[in-house]
Design a protein that fits this description.
The complex is a heterodimer of chains A (599) and B (306). With 599 residues, chain A is of the alpha/beta class. Helix content of chain A is 49%, strand content 13%. In chain A, the strands form 4 sheets. Chain A has a 7-stranded mixed sheet with strand order 3-9-8-7-10-13-14, sandwiched between helices. Chain A starts with a strand and ends with a helix. Chain B has a 5-stranded parallel sheet with strand order 2-5-8-1-9, sandwiched between helices. The chains are: A alpha/beta (599), B alpha/beta (306).
Chain lengths: 599, 306
């Protein structure tokens, strides 16, 4: 069965295709799976061989030309059966094992057919089944039981091994005309795409007290080309400073700020300046880790009751957020369970790489020895007390002075990737923990003018799983969040005794509903696009000037590659799957340490 | 094995260079004491152009740094060069805790007084030969600063509190480095400027085919081609970062063939020598997929060797 979507074992399937094609610079137009979900090795090789022997752009254009047909999937199956015959003939001399793999595939076909449920069998196209069964019977040297039109089709689908791309397309056209009286037409996909696109563009988000923390569900594994794009609408051009109602909402959603009012005033005076003058800050330690959401809501409700008249709209929104974020934690955990093997392997690899890396930058504490650097003032001991230990050498004990802060972008643009981000952050956290590097995990988002920094894991805590309470929702005012985090790092290490590394998991797309304050009468310019990227860049430069090595783990869409480069320079790494984390993150940290080794 | 210079002639390496190498051998014969340090290569390095560049650098009295990814034959080339020049080898495997005292020497107490125990670089400089600085970028740059005077025009090592050692005229230093290993560093300019840097290319399919056939003259030619293509496919997969370079192991491929000759099936031998070189279960499955798409698991000695 050939499908157009990537699922589960997609990387493995793609590797079959790339390997057979002999190149890795393309995204396969198809990948093949058995109905049981196993990767179909042989057919993926066939797809790769088709890329090797034919011009795949032309073939893809041809496949697209009948995509609007209801029977498109069925046609795909027929044509790939034809292509299989053709590429087999082309490749067999170069790769003799193909004959055996073909026989294995034929055996697999009958094995899997026998194991299918009745419903699965009923869902199959009988016409396709007949052709496949005949093909694989012949491969196994059995008799082909087809007659009439089916037999004719069977013979037709044995595309010859001497076909060129044009020849193959001509054969496929002929196939449609002969057996379906149908000429593949122009793709309708582009038209429908444009319509969907304009519909999407028309939908904007409004700021003000209607702005809610959006929490959603999808597979959470990340769909980079479908990252949520927030759009400002004309009606929200002028921002307003957050008021008490907004603060109540933030408090209801995230809990009390960890700093006192006086401390917050000092922090905001120092950080909410210039373009961020109208913004507020909120720093919290999430209590929802491990606490039943019901208890939490009860607690919040009682505190709200005592404080001010309850606003039911706020309560409902906050309640909604709390419920959904608890659900999200559950989903994050499920995702980790489902991908336990891959996560475990990634932790193993990343911690091994980080171990070597940090070891090379750690200081070896000197110890007394019988050979090494002579300590002149102790030399007398040799002859006077016959003590040969008057030398110093590098001992086995090391001293590591590095501390890492992991900052997660928790804005709504990460909506489709929440589980994946949580899992990736977990891999990084668990790996650093294994090599005994102190780690703090923070997340940031901006909602109703408040930039909320959540301390998901403190330096002293030894539980990387607390990162699984990560939930996306809201905007991201990167510049303000980065400055705040820089300030927090410095507050905790005022003597600059440690070397700080700040890793930011981001999609490099800063965007906030609160405009950039200009001090003029007409409010400010929107915090989005190039302007917001520039602001973020300034914040990153400031962090680096302050001695905090800052770099990004970029998880976003290709469209934002320019942004990440502008904000972080060359100090970023793009990660598209958890399996890439170990190499990516260790290389990134290696680069940071190389550029400016710790003191 | 025949003399390596005959092999160089077969490879078509410039006759002038080979003659100069013979002169070098004549000028700097090895004393019996160190003759067992002159390597007798088990494998030859294939690649005429690389050979010519390396020979020219060493003949000109310069030091050579071989840079390149894994499985390009850097160490084989080092050994082959020492064999070609007929010089003893002083091997130093660099690691992250390497320091000056390890390279040059250190103070020690011999029971009656503090004495100097020379390190491999000191010995190489003093007694003559080829110093092989393996994985030179694994060490911290600052600990390599002691090598600067030995590597540049001064050709001397001043050991504080002891002697000034003049580097013998036949002494050469050959460094090897591989970018990308966890823990490797960028070589600083001061050090890299003291070497002529030769980027060792990945072995070509044709050269690998010859290498296998020279090591296993009785291998079935068609099957040899499949092993060569398997290695090329792994090389491509590594280059595209789909797998790490752990499984890209030329020695492993040759070892696998030796094991097949001993009676293991191809599947067993390749699993031990290639697939299981990585410890990541998922990566193992990707490598196994490449192997399965080339070499039948049950392939036996009788089929592989004629």
């Amino acid at each position: 069965m050939i499908r157009r979507e990537y699922t589960g074992n997609a990387r493995r399937a793609r590797n079959y295709i790339w390997n057979a094609a002999g190149r890795y610079d393309f995204e396969p137009p198809y990948i093949a799976f058995y109905p049981t979900g196993e990767v179909d090795m042989y057919f993926n090789m066939v797809i790769g061989l088709a890329v090797k022997w034919f011009d795949m752009d032309c073939l893809t254009a041809f496949f697209d030309s009948y995509r609007s047909s209801r029977s498109a999937d069925e046609y795909d199956e027929f044509l790939w059966l034809g292509i299989e015959n053709c590429v087999f003939a082309k490749e067999i001399s170069e790769r003799p094992i193909l004959a055996q793999l073909r026989i294995d595939r034929a055996n697999d076909f009958f094995r899997i057919q026998n194991s299918l449920s009745r419903q699965q069998v009923e869902m199959q196209s009988m016409a396709v089944y007949d052709q496949q069964a005949a093909r694989w019977s012949e491969v196994l040297g059995r008799h082909v039981l087809l007659a009439g039109k089916k037999r004719k089709m069977y013979e037709f689908l044995k595309f010859e091994g001497n076909l060129s791309t044009e020849g193959l397309i001509a054969r496929m056209k002929e196939f449609f005309e002969e057996f379906f009286h149908f000429t593949p037409g122009i793709s309708e996909e582009k038209r429908s795409f444009r319509l969907a696109d304009s519909l999407r563009r028309g939908l904007g988000k409004r700021r003000g007290s209607s702005e809610k923390l959006m929490v959603r569900t999808a597979d959470g594994g990340g769909i980079t080309d479908k990252d949520v794009q927030l759009t400002h609408t004309a009606g929200m051009r002028y921002g307003f400073a957050p008021d008490k109602k907004d603060e109540d909402y933030i408090r209801a959603c995230f809990g009390d700020c960890v700093y006192s009012d006086e401390e917050m005033r000092i922090l905001e005076e120092a950080l909410c300046t210039d373009g961020d003058a109208a913004c507020r800050l909120w720093v919290v330690r999430p209590e929802r880790n491990g606490i039943a959401v019901g208890e939490m809501m009860d607690a919040r409700s009682s505190s709200e009751e005592g404080a001010a008249p309850r606003n039911t709209a706020i309560s409902k929104d906050a309640r909604d957020f709390l419920t959904k974020s608890a659900d999200q934690r559950h989903r994050n955990e499920k995702y980790c369970e489902k991908n336990a093997l891959m996560i475990h392997e990634s932790i193993k690899r990343l911690s091994a790489a980080l171990g070597t890396l940090f070891e090379s930058y750690s200081r070896h504490l000197p110890e007394k020895a019988r050979a090494g650097r002579l300590v002149a003032r102790n030399a007398y001991r040799l002859s006077v007390v016959h003590d040969p230990y008057v030398f110093l050498r590098d001992g086995d004990e090391t001293e590591n002075n590095i501390r890492v802060t992991l900052l997660l972008d928790a804005s709504m643009s990460r909506l489709y990737s929440q589980e994946k981000i949580a899992a990736e952050a977990y891999v990084i956290a668990a790996s650093l923990e294994r090599v005994h590097i102190p780690l703090e995990i923070l997340s940031y988002r901006t909602i109703r003018g408040f930039t909320v920094i959540e301390k998901l894991k403190g330096v002293a805590e030894k539980k990387p799983e607390s990162v699984l309470s990560y939930t996306a929702g809201g905007w991201n005012r990167d510049s303000l969040a980065f400055r705040t985090v820089g300030r927090m790092i410095r507050e905790e290490d005022p003597n600059r005794a440690q070397s700080h590394i700040l890793l930011i998991l981001t999609d490099a797309s800063p965007n906030d509903s609160m405009p950039i304050a200009t001090g003029g009468l007409r409010g400010g310019r929107e915090y989005e696009g190039e302007l917001s990227v520039r602001e973020a860049r300034k914040a990153v430069d400031r962090l680096r000037e302050d001695g905090i090595r800052t770099s990004a783990i970029f998880l976003g869409a290709s469209a934002h590659m320019d942004n990440v480069h502008q904000i972080f320079g060359k100090e970023y790494v793009r990660i598209q799957s958890i399996a890439q984390l170990a190499d990516g993150v260790s290389e990134l940290i290696a680069m940071m340490l190389r550029e400016s080794p710790p003191d | 094995m025949s003399d390596i210079l005959d092999f160089l002639r077969e490879e078509g390496v410039s006759g002038d260079l080979i003659r100069e190498v013979e002169d070098f051998r004549g000028r700097y014969p090895v004393s019996g004491e160190y003759s067992d340090r002159v390597p007798e290569p088990q494998y030859y390095y294939y690649g005429k152009e690389t050979w010519e560049m390396a020979l020219a650098v060493l003949l000109a009295g310069r030091n050579l740094l071989l840079a390149g990814p894994k499985a390009t034959g850097k160490n084989v080339l080092c050994e082959n060069l020492a064999a070609a020049f007929g010089q003893p080898v002083w091997n130093v495997s660099f690691h992250i805790n390497m320091d000056a005292s390890y390279l040059i020497g250190t103070d020690t107490f011999d029971g009656t007084r503090v004495t100097f125990r020379p390190g491999p670089i000191y010995l190489c400089a003093e007694r003559g030969g080829f110093g092989v600085l393996d994985e030179i970028n694994m060490a911290k740059n600052e600990s390599l600063a002691v090598l600067h005077s030995a590597l540049d025009f001064r050709r001397a090592i001043d050991v504080p509190g002891y002697d000034l050692i003049r580097v013998k005229p036949q002494t050469r230093f050959i460094g090897t480095m591989n970018y990308g290993y966890a823990g490797t560093r960028e070589l600083n300019e001061a050090l890299s400027s003291r070497f002529a840097i030769l980027s060792v290319p990945e072995i070509s399919e044709n050269d690998l085919d010859r290498l296998i056939k020279r090591s296993f003259p009785d291998i079935n030619s068609k099957i040899c081609t499949q092993f060569v293509k398997l290695f090329a496919e792994l090389m491509k997969k590594t280059e595209k970062a789909e797998i790490s370079d752990r499984a890209l192991d030329l020695r492993g491929l040759l070892d696998a063939l030796s094991l097949i000759r001993e009676g293991l099936t191809a599947g067993q031998a390749l699993r031990m020598c290639i697939v299981d070189k990585t410890f990541d279960a998922y990566e193992q499955s990707l490598i196994m997929d490449v192997v399965k798409a080339r070499i039948p698991a049950e392939l036996s000695r009788a089929v592989v060797f004629e």
